[in-house]
Amino acid sequence: MKVLAGTSNSKLCKDIARQLKLKLVNSKIKRFADGEVYVEINENIRGNSIFVVQSTSNPANDNLMELLICIDALRRSSAKSITAVIPYFGYARQDRKVVPRTAISAKLVSNLITNAGANRILSVDLHAGQIQGFFDIPVDNLFATPIFARHIKKNIKINNLTCVAPDVGGVERTRALSRRINSSIAIIDKRRPAPGKSEVMNIVGNVKNKNCVIVDDIIDSGGTIVNAVKALKDKGAKDVYVYITHAVLSGPAVENIAQSALDEVIETYEHKVGPQNGAKVVVRAWQDPEFLTAIKEDCSTVIEQEYGYSGRQGEHIKAVENTAEIHNLVVCTLCSCYPWTVLGLPPAWYKSAPYRARAVQDPRGTLAEFGTIISKEKEIRVWDSTSEMRYLVIPERPKGTENWNENKLLRLVTRNSMIGVEEAKKSGSSQ
To answer: CA 173, CA 268: separation in Å to the nearest integer?
Structure first.
């Protein structure tokens, strides 16, 4: 068994290979000047079972064509069997004729993959379950629900929780999650006046004073989620979390979601974005002075090269270090500029007008509201994030942690400490 990595998500491919303790197939994938895809297999794979990992995500057409050519190259290299691992199956939303004289693109793509030479398909949370029947080869459609359930039980108080279906089509997925965490459900009744646009009409179920979890397979433009969150908040919901299998986030989706009332977004391949990424950067900065110097000079470039963290407003990040003399605090006075790639989605309080105003006018008092008391002898520097410059605070390393390993140190670093409203947890608090 061997794994061939497509270019749609090279980090995911490497993680899969590492988990399976396999080497990736030695291959060469490139684009000619006119955009044509070239695939070359540089090792003998005759008689091997090959898994080619390639999402057909944005750019959908380029990634789909690459997948087809990879499959053809493997077939012509005498692979015993070819399994196309397609975590995100593009064109899945075009699974039927909604209006006359339109294509059923999901069926067309299914035919293309089959005819290219794939023997089996492995995907995750297909947008429409009936797509499995479009293929004339076996299809394994995996579900993210068990992963979501474990994450919710670990991170959210479930005694006051309601699972919310963003539309009628998502009821089955929502009900499956609610059974696993033993919660009630609610349904958002919506209509879509045009493709890519949604309008919330009504909420079926009680969400007042509830922590709500919206579960869906795709966030694309973000319109559905933004409208759903607003409707839930208007009905008295407390915190709203969104669990998404495929965070496509096309166009202005990131900005739209960042400016919404949404409290947190969690996607299946969670380590792509989120505070756990920032924590890794902080801990390494604590342990490696050269790395600390490097990220203070050019944080975005270094973390992309070292960790692959990029996108999601991850450009133009500046690392600022808390010391015995200086405490750094981050605010965004005009919008919600925020480095998603290392911190995840900005919390609701970060986007609020009171925090924005108070943090600039009275930073010491603002910190006190978070339980962070800074002595008058220590300078407080307030950094105003913009689209051209975003900030990551490197909190002071707690005393008594000199001999701690990375995993133990990671527990001390929180999102709030990397914004600067709190300090890193005390050494004894991680036990």
So the answer is: 14
What Cα–Cα distance (Å) separates residue 286 from each residue in 277, 295, 397? 15, 12, 7
Give dist(CA 200, CA 166) in Å, integer: 9
Report, at the CATH architecture level, how domain 145-268 is classified: 3-Layer(aba) Sandwich (3.40)
Catalytic residue among 23, 30, 154, 190: 190
pLDDT by residue (tens digit) across 131-148? Answer: 999 999 999 999 999 999
> How is the chain split into domains, by residue range?
2-142, 145-268, 275-430
Question: What stretch of H or E contains 172?
Answer: helix 171-181
190 among known catalytic residues: yes
pLDDT tens for 21-78 read: 998 999 999 989 888 999 999 999 999 999 999 999 888 899 999 999 999 999 999 9
Q: Can you say whether the dihedral through the CA atoms of 270, 272, 275, 281 is positive or negative?
A: positive
Give yes or no for residue 210 having a pLDDT over 50. yes
Please state whether beta strands 197-204 and 184-194 pair in parallel, antiparallel, or not at all (unpaired). antiparallel
Classified by CATH at the fold level, domain 2-142 comes out as Rossmann fold (3.40.50)
- C-alpha 56/C-alpha 414 separation (Å) is 34
Dihedral, CA of residue 173, residue 175, residue 181 and residue 183, to nearest 10 = 140
In the chain, DSSP finds a helix count (H) and a strand count (E) of 15, 17
Cβ–Cβ < 8 Å for 205, 186: yes
Assigned CATH for 275-430: 3.90.330.10
Helical segments of 308-414, H only: 340-343, 348-351, 353-361, 363-369, 406-410
pLDDT at position 305: 85
Q: Which two tokens stand for residue 258?
A: 């960042």
**What's the predicted TM-score (pTM) here?**
0.67
Quote the distance between the C-alpha of residue 302 and its chain's center.
20
Neighbouring C-alpha atoms within 13 Å toward the C-beta of 24: 18
- Which of the given ranges, 9-13, 282-286, 301-305, 339-343, has the highest pLDDT on average? 282-286
Chain-centre distance for alpha carbon 259: 17
- Largest CA-CA distance found in the chain, in angstroms, rounded: 73
Per-residue model confidence (pLDDT) at position 99: 87
